[in-house]
Design brief:
Elements (H helix, E strand, L loop, with lengths): L1 E6 L2 H11 L3 E3 L2 E4 L2 E5 L5 E3 L7 H4 L16 E3 L4 H12 L3 E7 L4 H14 L5 E3 L7 H9 L2 E2 L4 H29 L9 H16 L5 E8 L3 E3 L6 H11 L3 E14 L7 H12 L3 H13 L18 H15 L40 H17 L4 E12 L2 E12 L3 H4 L21 E3 L1 E8 L6 E2 H10 L20 H10 L3 E4 L2 E4 L1 H9 L7 H15 L5 H19 L25 E4 L2 E4 L6 E2 L9 H8 L4 E5 L2 E14 L2 E9 L2
Amino acid sequence: MSILVIGEKPSVSRELAKVLGAKLKKNGYMEGNGYIVSWCFGHLVGLKFPDEYSENWAAKWSFAQLPMIPNEWKFKISEASKDQFKALKELMTNSDVTEIICATDADREGECIFRYVYNLVKCKKPVKRLWISSLEESAIRNGFNKLKNSTEYDNLYQAGFCRAKADWLVGMNGSRLFSVRYNAHLNTGRVQTPTLAMIVKRDDEIANFVKQKYFTVDLDIGFKASSARIDDEREADNLVSSCNNKTVTVTEINKEVKSVSAPKLFDLTSLQREANKKFGYTAQQTLDYMQSLYEKKLVTYPRTDSQYLSDDMEQIAYSLIPSISEHFEFGRVENPNLKAVINNSKVTGHHAIIPTEIGVKCDISLLSTGEQNILKLVALRLLCASASAYKYGSVKVKLLCENTEFTATGRTVLESGWKALDSKIGEAEKSKEKSLPNLENSMTFTAKASKSEHFTIPPKAYTEDTLLSAMEHAGAEDFDENAEKTGLGTPATRANTIENLVKHGYIERDGKKIISTGKGRNLIKVMPDEVKSAQLTADWENKLLEVERGNLSADSFMNEINNFVTGLVSKYGSVDNSVSFGENQASIGNCPKCNKPIIKGKYGWYCSARCGMNLTKVFGVELSEGQVKSLLSGKETSYIKNGRKTIVVPKIAENTFNGKTYFNWATRKE
């Protein structure tokens, strides 16, 4: 008799098998010591697409097909994973297997991955759940000693299944509805479209920003004191004339000691934001590095939404601190204190991300640069969280000259605390320290006055850091301040949302900036408010959390989604010719061959006159809209691939691929 353990992927299952003593390798599993250990290959089973349900839904898209709401949800086996599904089915139905342990990732998605397979096989054998946050041997053994009944995670599965069905319903129906309405292939999504709307809105605010000039009068009195904003330049000039070489008197001094507490530990989103700030990594890159480190047993589970540790992790965390200081040479923390990040009520599925005991002693030279940087970042954050507060003295001084008030501010570091550590890796934050001399009320100075010219500053384009923050807090103003807010998506899905927007050509990266494309702006222009509403999507995410906690039934949530989709179809199920997504879309330049407009198509940029000129990729690299614009204006551009910088020049090039000849207007500089 054997116990079947099913992990999410081969690499994780191998670690489980080592601990369990299942050493004999078979086709699709490992066996030994009374255990059979197999795996699911990630998304082995998923929901079927609409065209796999019926001939009607498989026909040419039309309003008559909508809304598509399955009476019974159907699943399909991934073509690439059919052999593994067959192996799992044979193992699950094997009479020697008496019990199954679900050991997929301990989250919503992991629960669904296992249950989709279990349900499709129609298996009825008892299931226990392994719930661990680390692949260290001690964590695995502890997890197997504390297995729980699978029924305790029924609500988690229902929440995950609801999310999958909601994404299917809103995405599939919305994409078909608006594609038919505007006679174009449009891609919409429950989380994707509101995220795109935020980016488009920010870009619109930047594009339509009108900068305004204003002035200040500055007094040089051994330090700088400045007037309030002055919009009239003549008024500023008059103030300079009246104050120059005149007496300045100190009228008020306000001194405060301010404190900035040590930062919390990382959850996935805060780690992705910090990695983007310090290293320029995308959210997906950070997640990929973290997953690799997790599978190497160097960090704890990455897809967590908690920045706290539970009581039982406290001593483990303290024991890691000396090793971090020594191994990574970040410096010591005197009297480390983690009380601020120990809170059982703030830990649900998983605790905050911290390094493991192996991670703080490993040879980091064996890791890739990205893995090294992320491991150091995680280790440093545990050190910072245990350090003392950053304290500084703040001084604000008011002065009077010719009946006009001027102010000066200063800051002096009193205790560097955790900030002394935080600057050890990545781009350091610019120092804001600027001290003032010792001042007393009624002190006088002789002023040297001058005028400074300033301009109002437009909003900043989103970066991966600020977009993740915006997604995390979207709709927060519509919830009670004590409610748990999930925003757009979850820590585990936000990176994929951003990558999908890039993949579909709705946004692009320009250095660290994330900006919308013409295609993305056109899409948001025609999307109704309810489809691009961040508040509505955030409300749905909050309700999914309630389903997970057993406070809301899955049926209630799905009824709301079904009604939403039905309402959309009823309201927008007609053709709208007022907007075109075809040849009338905005051009970004003229064709170098025939001088007709260049527009964006499904597979890249091409000549609207279809003269044969196009640009999909340059030696395997897809260029951004900004790079293509540079080429069309006759300028060189460049890209970096595998650490190597390549110059791309505007030049008509003839290429042959699979026996066919095509032309583009750029080539690599040799």
